[in-house]
Amino acid sequence: MTYYAGPDLARAFRTVRTNTIQIAQEIPEEQYGFRPAPDTRTVAETLAHMAAQTRWHQRLHGVDKKTFVAFDDFMSYMKDVGAFEAGLAGRTKADLIAALEAEGESFSTWLASLSSDDLGQVVGFPPPIDPPKKTRFEMLLSAKEHEMHHRGMLMLVERLLGIVPHLTRARQERAAAATARS
Fold first, then answer.
1. What pLDDT does 1 receive?
2. I need a labelling partner for 151 at 20 to 30 A (CA). Which of 49, 73, 143, 159 fits?
3. DSSP assignment of 150-179, as one string?
4. pTM of the entire predicted model
């Protein structure tokens, strides 16, 4: 089996989403309106964005199974994602975490159903997109990369709020245990 078989991709995405949810749980709800700089998303807006973003991938590669994505197609997907994201605006911490959990599990379950052949299919794009073709695997991997990008931002936000991120705490605990054994 190759790495990009659906179950492997699903497992990797679940790990990323689990870490995102941990961060969402650790940031106090009263800080969900925190905006680290002008013209950036708040914590709540970032979490809503992350919850919504997997939907277009599932529609493009699952429901529609497009092999060519025109600009109008992409804009239609983004409109749907934007509407879902907007529907999460003003929701509670618990609601946002529930959306992250539900959307993450839906996406992961769907990813797990994909075969290596599915993921190896090529999707084309109009100019000026470069490269003009990508595999479904590369496109779906970008959902994980996108989430990790925003999760990194939230980890910095945690630091600004005086919270040591859970992944850092775990690393520090492992280092302390190794030092104690030496």
1. 46
2. 73
3. HHHHHHHHHHHTT---HHHHHHHHHHHHHH
4. 0.92
Q: With residue 7 as reference, give the H or E element that holds it.
A: helix 6-26
The 10 Å Cβ neighbour count of residue 150 is 17
- Say how many residues make up the chain: 182
By the 8 A CB rule, do 108 and 13 touch?
Answer: yes
Place of tokens 């104690």: 180
What does pLDDT average to in each consecutive run of 10 residues of the chain (182 residues)?
74 97 98 97 98 97 96 97 96 98 98 94 96 96 96 97 95 93 89
Q: Which architecture does CATH list for 6-181?
A: Up-down Bundle (1.20)
Q: Is the dihedral of CA 104, 110, 114, 119 positive or negative?
A: negative
Domain range list for the chain: 6-181
